[in-house]
Amino acid sequence: MKSLLSIILIVAAIVSLSCSGNDPVSAAFHGDTELNNGDAVPFILNQNSPNPFNPTTLIFFQVAQNMHLTLKVYTEDWQEVGTLLDEDISIPNTGGLVHGGNYMNYMITFDGRDLASGIYYYVMEGGGYQQIRAMRLMK
Question: How far is the C-alpha of 71 from the C-alpha of 49, rounded, in Å?
C-alpha cells in the first residue's frame, strides 16, 4: 500500500508541475474552452483532416458570432511557423447564436511542404477563448 501511495504522490507532483502555467503547452490548454464544462463558446476548433498529412491538410472551425480570430501554427518546441488567419469574421444574422447549432463552418488549408516531419500545434484565439489542436506531418 505504501508503494501505491508513493506512486500516486509522484504522479500528482508531475501533474502539478506540468500544469503550473509556466510552459506554453499548459498556458495554451489553460484557456481551452473544452475545459469549461460545456459552456457555450463563440467558436469551435476541430481536428485537422487528414491527420497525419503530407503535404496539405484542412483545418476546420465553426464560428457562432462576429469576432476577430487568429489561427497560428507552432512547432513542437513552440516556435511560430506562421499565421493562417488574423481577421474579423462576420457571419449572417441567424438569430440566437452559440447554443442551438447556429455555427458557420469554415475551412483553411495548411501546406506543410516546406516543413520537416513532426508534430505541429495550431492555436485559435478570439473572444477571450483559446483552443489548441495537434497535427502530424509525415513525409
Answer: 16
- For the entire predicted model, the pTM comes to 0.69
Report the SS3 class of residue 13: helix
**Rounded-to-integer distance, Cα 73 and Cα 95, Å:** 33
Name residues whose C-beta falls within 8 Å of residue 60's C-beta, 6 or more positions apart in sequence.
46, 47, 48, 49, 105, 106, 107
Question: Does a structural domain hold residue 78?
Answer: yes
Q: Kindly state the percentage of the chain with pLDDT values over 90.
A: 50
Q: Residue 114 and residue 132: Cα distance in Å, rounded?
A: 22
Q: Given the C-alpha cell 513525409, which residue does it identify?
A: 139
Q: Note down the domain range covering 40.
A: 31-137
Q: How far apart are CA 20 and CA 27, in angstroms?
A: 9
Q: How many domains does the chain have?
A: 1
